[in-house]
Amino acid sequence: MTALLDPPATDILRIAREQVLERGTGLSEQQVLACLQLPDDRLTELLQLAHEVRMRHCGPEVEVEGIVSLKTGGCPEDCHFCSQSGLFSSPVRAAWLDIPSLVKAAVETRATGATEFCIVAAVRGPDATLMAQVRAGVAAIREAVDIQVACSLGMLTQDQVDDLADMGVHRYNHNLETARSHFPNVVTTHSWEERWSTLEMVRDAGMEVCCGGILGMGETLEQRAEFAAQLAGLGPDEVPLNFLNPRPGTPFGDLPVLAAPEALRAIAAFRLALPRTILRFAGGREITLGDLAVDGMLGGINAVIVGNYLTTLGRPATADLEMLADLQMPIKALGQTL
Ligand code: SF4
């Protein structure tokens, strides 16, 4: 009787249990696709396995990060999801933050227990003025507070990569955003390959690589699996997972919000493709998952962004910190490796 209830040897979750949980080898593109195609009545099982993988290969700690926008809006690129593009009619205005405000944000972020502070600028890539601002900002933050500084400044030249490494920036974020095959439907002003080449330079310079994307931008399940496999090929230290929050005035403003079960399946499938990576809840979580965010935390996620995102409100930091306390997941301490 029991044999009838056991999943067949070809069942993807049975395979994943042996391959990913026991041996630590991430799922292939086709295997990720099989997970994304699982019916709703197997979602709980999928999430449980992804959680076991996260606990076995990463541990119970959660990495907490705050982000701040050094330069907002007015970007010359046309990423169709982004309200910071100057090419759309979205209401985000161009603005710069001064260094004292940057330092204040870093201090407040550290006070939440966060160990990461990411400086973000809405640009194609930094110019000399922005690089000088970042250098001054990073030095002022390091003087004021003990927190690791990351940057997200768009596409870089080799000299800029070297400069950032020299400043002590320990992690660089640059998202591939979506599968290579879907990218031309999302961005036309630069290529996926240009993004990839920045990521390679960052990795080769010894900085940690943070690279993720946005799900729910009209990609097929096949393309979602393709994206997971491409990220696994890059081997990033961190993958921020965003869900499209359709912003008024952008070309993707009318796309539907991803259904919660689909988002949860994707979280778990990405964890099974990337067993040791820091998998971070980023933007769009509130609108996509609401209170089901807890299921994501118990389905492979092991990092969060506290406070507000760049152009939309998140939740108060205390709400997330309470959620982690309820789940008995400790916040990663400074200097601790996940
Ligand atoms: S995602 Fe980045 S590069 Fe693209 S429009 Fe927005 S700020 Fe510019």
Q: Total number of helical segments?
A: 13
Low-confidence stretches: none
Secondary structure tally: strands: 10
Helix/strand order, N-terminal first: HHHHEEHEHEHEHEEHEHEHHEH
Estimated radius of gyration: 19 Å
Decide which structural class fits the backbone: alpha/beta
Portion of residues in beta strands equals 5-15%
Mean pLDDT: 92
Shape: globular
Overview of the molecule:
By secondary structure, the chain is α/β, with parallel strands linked by helices. The protein contains 13 helices and 10 strands. The protein has helices at residues 2-5, 12-22, 29-36, 43-57, 99-111, 128-144, 158-167, 192-204, 221-234, 260-273, 285-289, 293-297, 317-326, and strands spanning 63-72, 95-96, 116-121, 148-152, 171-173, 208-210, 213-215, 238-243, 278-281, 303-305. Helix 7 (158-167) links the parallel strand 4 (148-152) and strand 5 (171-173). 47% of the residues are buried. The structure holds iron/sulfur cluster. Iron/sulfur cluster (SF4) is lined by residues 75, 77, 79, 82, 84-85, 122, 124, 154.
Summarize the structure.
This protein is α/β, with parallel strands linked by helices and 338 residues long. Helix content is 41%, strand content 13%. Strand 5, helix 8 and strand 6 (208-210) form a beta-alpha-beta unit.
Which SSEs are present, and which pair or pack?
Blueprint lengths: L1 H4 L6 H11 L6 H8 L6 H15 L5 E10 L22 E2 L2 H13 L4 E6 L6 H17 L3 E5 L5 H10 L3 E3 L18 H13 L3 E3 L2 E3 L5 H14 L3 E6 L16 H14 L4 E4 L3 H5 L3 H5 L5 E3 L11 H10 L12
Parallel strand pairs: 1-3, 1-10, 3-4, 4-5, 5-6, 7-8, 8-9, 9-10
Antiparallel strand pairs: 1-2
The site of iron/sulfur cluster has 9 residues, from loops.
